[in-house]
Specification:
The chain is an alpha/beta fold. The protein has helices at 12-22, 40-45, 61-77, 91-96, 98-103, 114-117, 121-133, 145-152, 170-179, 182-188, 210-217, 222-225, 241-253, 267-275, 291-298, 312-315, 327-343, 346-364, 366-375, and strands spanning 2-6, 28-33, 49-52, 81-87, 104-111, 136-139, 160-162, 196-200, 228-233, 257-261, 279-281, 302-306, 322-324.
């Protein structure tokens, strides 16, 4: 079977998807991507051809024309594409590959989150033509369904499937937590062990609302603020130095101690980073249930999330979280969580952690979701 994936080769989620779902099958895999830097050794070692197109941000006419010619050449030399699978519905890249959709026997389009939830209307209108062609339309979270129906009605419900990725980090967090406790992980990241480590957002994009969160926490009593160490991981997402300076200015004005981490992390580093947090504060404008959020929960971190995000799928399986209505209300909710951190016994924490990990494994470990992903290819 020949499988062509259109997606971002540099995404850990796409790499892990291929490793879990496709590598043990008798298939030939190609990936069309605008970048291939982080995992090029993985693709090369497994005989996966990565065909690079210009970046989505490229506006050079010459680059776009070359990509169109490349698309025609690929289509011309392909004797057969059994399955074309779009991972993250990037309209620009899909348009450049339009000829390939015409020769594929089966088309799967998987929305990852922001490609649907934050897409402009004109992009959604273009995507409709590809959805007409698709055999399977995949959403990775139930909380994307409302936006999908608002955009397209019920026309595509017969093709619609809701299935999350397996989270590859659960086993790594298990492994690291057998060797290191939270204080060890804080030390590894050079965070003070005698303060609560509060992680703010999981990347550097402005939609994470870092500044609004810092302002809200700035209204806390000084005796609480003096015990907080705020941490920002900006290794994922384009860094905006003006925006970063604005965040730092707000942090200094409110006399917070803080740390920015900009390095790329491998899986073990990610596990140590999640395990270094006591509290994770999240404030993104729109999102599916992000993998990073699930990893913090799996690591036993207290999650404070905005109620404008529909996280009912987690609440329904018994995951304990703390929601706030707006950034004004975040201050009070944080004080409640802070008191819990001070009062909880080790035994209570261990019991809650065991329960959460079991529920999350049943929710979206690769062992749980793998059969359904494989079924889409008729393996």
């Amino acid at each position: 079977m020949n499988i062509l994936i259109i997606g971002l080769a540099d995404s850990i989620w796409l790499k892990e998807y291929i490793a879990h779902v496709l590598l043990d099958e008798d298939v030939s895999i190609s990936v069309i991507s605008c970048r291939n830097e982080k995992y090029k050794d993985f693709y090369a070692e497994n005989g996966i051809e990565v065909i690079q197109y210009p970046s989505r941000e490229s506006k050079k006419i010459s680059s776009i024309l070359k990509s169109l010619k490349k698309s025609r050449r690929i289509a011309g030399r392909q004797k057969q594409i059994d399955v074309i699978h779009v991972h993250f519905a990037d309209v620009s890249l899909m348009l450049l590959c339009y000829k390939l959709f015409m020769i594929a026997d089966k088309t799967i389009i998987t929305f990852w989150g922001s490609d649907l939830l934050r897409a402009f209307n004109w992009k959604l209108k273009i995507l409709k033509h590809f959805l007409d062609k698709a055999d399977i339309i995949q959403l990775v979270s139930e909380n994307m369904l409302e936006k999908f129906h608002k955009s397209y009605g019920i026309k595509f419900d017969g093709k619609l499937n809701i299935l999350d990725f397996g989270n590859p980090m659960y086993g790594v967090i298990d492994s690291v937590s057998r060797k290191m406790v939270r204080e060890d992980c804080k030390k590894y990241w050079e965070m003070p062990g005698n303060m609560l480590s509060v992680h703010i957002g999981y990347n550097s994009i402005r939609e994470q609302n870092h500044i609004a969160i810092v302002k809200s926490l700035g209204r806390l009593p000084d005796k609480i603020k003096d015990n907080l160490f705020l941490v920002f991981h900006f290794g994922y997402g384009a860094e905006d130095s003006i925006y970063v300076n604005h965040i730092k200015s707000e942090l200094k004005e409110n006399k917070f101690r803080y740390k920015f981490i900009n390095k790329y992390m491998d899986k073990e580093d990610v596990a140590k980073f999640r395990l270094s947090a006591d509290i994770f504060v999240y404030g993104q404008t729109t999102d599916a249930v992000a993998g990073s959020v699930l990893e913090y929960l799996y690591a036993g971190v207290k999650l404070i999330y905005p109620k404008w995000l529909d996280y009912s799928v987690l609440l329904n399986i018994g995951i304990q979280m703390y929601g706030y209505e707006d950034f004004t209300g975040l201050t009070d909710i944080f004080q409640e969580v802070y008191k819990e951190c001070q009062n909880n016994s080790d035994d209570n924490d261990r019991d809650a952690l065991t329960d959460n990990r079991m529920r999350l494994k049943n929710f979206n470990s690769w062992e749980k979701v793998l059969p359904e992903w494989k079924a889409m290819y008729d393996f």
